[in-house]
């Protein structure tokens, strides 16, 4: 994230990119429904250049 720029990638493929001024700073969280089976592995985060 940089400013309002949010980019999401999955398996090295761009999923979406958007501009949202709501999240100018903060933390990253992962969410899944309570009745879902979810497995997260190798979740890298990096600063935008």
Cα separation of the termini = 10 Å
- Strand proportion: 25-35%
Total number of β-strand segments? 2
**Mean pLDDT over the residues:** 82
- Tally of helical runs: 0
Strand order within the widest sheet?
A: 1-2
**Low-pLDDT segments:** none
Helix-strand category: mainly beta
Q: How many strands, what sense, and barrel or not for the largest sheet?
A: 2 strands, antiparallel
User: SSE order, as H and E?
Assistant: EE
- DSSP helix fraction: under 10%
**Broad shape:** globular
CA-based gyration radius: 13 Å
Helix-strand blueprint:
Elements: E1 5-10, E2 13-19
Antiparallel strand pairs: 1-2
Defining traits:
mainly beta; globular; 49 residues; two-stranded antiparallel sheet; 2 strands
How is this structure best described in words?
The chain is mainly β and 49 residues long. The protein contains no helices and two strands. Strands 1-2 form a two-stranded antiparallel sheet. It is globular and about 35 Å long. The model has no long low-confidence stretch (mean pLDDT 82).
Give a short synopsis of this structure:
This protein has 49 residues and is mainly β. It contains no helices and 2 strands. A hairpin with a 2-residue loop joins β1 and β2.
């Amino acid at each position: 994230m940089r400013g309002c720029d949010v980019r999401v990638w999955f398996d090295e493929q761009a999923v979406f990119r958007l501009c949202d001024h709501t999240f100018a700073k903060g933390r990253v969280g992962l969410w899944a429904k309570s009745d879902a089976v979810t497995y997260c592995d190798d979740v890298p985060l990096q600063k935008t250049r």
